[in-house]
Design a protein that fits this description.
Number of helices: 16
Radius of gyration: 22 Å
Shape: globular
Mean pLDDT: 87
Distance between the termini: 59 Å
Length: 412
């Protein structure tokens, strides 16, 4: 009975894994060829932006972002900058003020995290009665391309209500951890986000570098205060019949963790929030998908389930290892090991092509690819930890130190 149950579970896991892998591969095919879009210059500058920068103890990097934003290729009277100095204990607010932007200081030790700070700032914005067409959200450690607002204006002018920008890396060469994080983002941009935009599905908000029409926030509110407020708001958009579009040319450079400890904490927080969102939204998404024949909701539901499929496959691999490790021949020929190795090789070498296409490949990045499967493998215990701690909502700050300007990114 035990052997039969184990065989059934192994077959189920393998079928589910191959189904998910095939699904995401088919979706990614639509990102192979980048479509030519009309230049942003063809669209009149019609959207006035309010830019919110979420900042908690970011004195080392806030000045660079403000200088960057003040030099954007967009009419200066068509955007304003607000720094949300959230529970800061350093000179973040002072530096922002000296750089000539608006500062909103918030002190609330009970409700920590970016989701809460944005909720508070958005409420202040609506109470002020000031008129803006769109809201932009950035993190303090970011830099953006000169054309960022022009490209966002283009997408909004085309009728999109919420748009995510291209998430690039500020420090891909600092360490093997930052390098592998960068690879993950580049692959996601090209093979996850771009094809969903082309297919009319909803892209995923990345927590920073996105804009939304003010009317969207007025209509459904923010109400996204979990550990992954970006995912939470993305799902609420879908359940309200809206979706996130994509701009491949509006680039935001984000600082990646430098070591495994920082990376582990950050990704664990992401998985805590992911599991929390799965618990709260998965049933509603599946209901909407089948009730309304809504493929956007079904795609989002599959995205919520993806980490659990990864864990199931990892557990099946380890279970097979402990059962047959004594027989090395059987272990080397086991379906679990073969499946696991194939998945790692496919994910690694399939994505190499698109890193080259994106213009990101260097000799150092190629070396990082040799250990990219190891980096990917660390997701399994992180997802398990995130699931176990899904009900813990304590926000953990990621320290940022890379004080760079946009000209530095051009050299990179």
């Amino acid at each position: 009975m035990g052997d039969t149950l184990r065989s059934v579970l192994e077959i189920f896991t393998q079928v589910l894994s191959w189904f998910v892998l095939t699904y995401y591969f088919v979706i990614s095919v639509f990102g192979w060829v980048k479509r030519k879009e009309p230049p942003a210059s063809e669209f009149p500058v019609s959207n006035k932006f309010i830019i919110f920068i979420a900042a908690h103890n970011e004195e080392k990097v806030i000045g660079s972002l403000i200088r960057n934003l003040k030099s954007l290729n967009y009419p200066k009277d068509m955007y304003d900058i607000f720094v949300i100095a959230d529970n800061c204990e350093d000179n973040t607010a002072k530096i922002a003020s000296l750089n000539g932007v608006n500062v909103l200081e918030r002190h609330d030790i009970e409700n920590k995290g970016k989701g809460h700070s944005l909720e508070w700032a958005f409420q202040k914005f609506f109470e002020s009665g000031k008129k803006y067409d769109a809201i932009c959200v950035l993190d303090a450690d970011n830099l953006v391309s000169d054309n960022f607002l022009l490209e966002m204006n283009k997408q909004l002018s085309k009728g999109h209500k919420v748009v995510q920008g291209y998430l690039d890396s500020k420090n891909p060469y600092d360490s093997w951890i930052s390098g592998n994080h960068s690879i993950s983002y580049w692959v996601t941009d090209r093979l996850f986000q771009l094809p969903r935009y082309y297919l009319g599905l909803s892209c995923a908000l990345g927590g920073t570098g996105f804009v939304m029409k003010t009317e969207v926030l007025r209509q459904i509110g923010w109400n996204a205060t979990c550990l992954t407020e970006d995912l939470e708001f993305s799902l609420r958009l879908i359940l309200n019949g809206m979706k996130v579009a994509w701009s491949h040319e509006a680039i935001v450079y984000d600082e990646k963790p430098l070591n495994l400890k920082q990376s582990w904490k950050q990704r664990k927080r992401w998985m805590q929030g992911h599991c929390d969102c799965a618990r709260r939204f998965l049933v509603d998404l599946l209901s909407k998908a089948f009730r309304d024949r809504d493929f956007v909701s079904l795609d989002a539901a599959m995205y919520l389930m993806q980490p659990f499929v990864i864990v199931a496959n990892g557990i099946a691999f380890f279970a097979g290892f402990f059962v047959i490790a004594a027989d090395i021949k059987n272990f080397l020929l086991s379906d679990n090991l073969i499946l696991f190795v194939l998945l790692m090789l496919i994910l690694t070498y399939y994505t190499v092509v698109f890193i080259i296409i994106e213009g990101k490949m260097t000799s150092k990045i190629m070396r990082y690819f040799l250990i990219f499967p190891l980096f990917s493998f660390t997701w399994i215990p992180i997802i398990i930890q995130g699931f176990i701690n899904r009900n813990k909502h304590e926000w953990v700050h990621t320290v940022h130190t890379r004080d760079l300007d946009l000209k530095d990114m051009n050299r990179v």
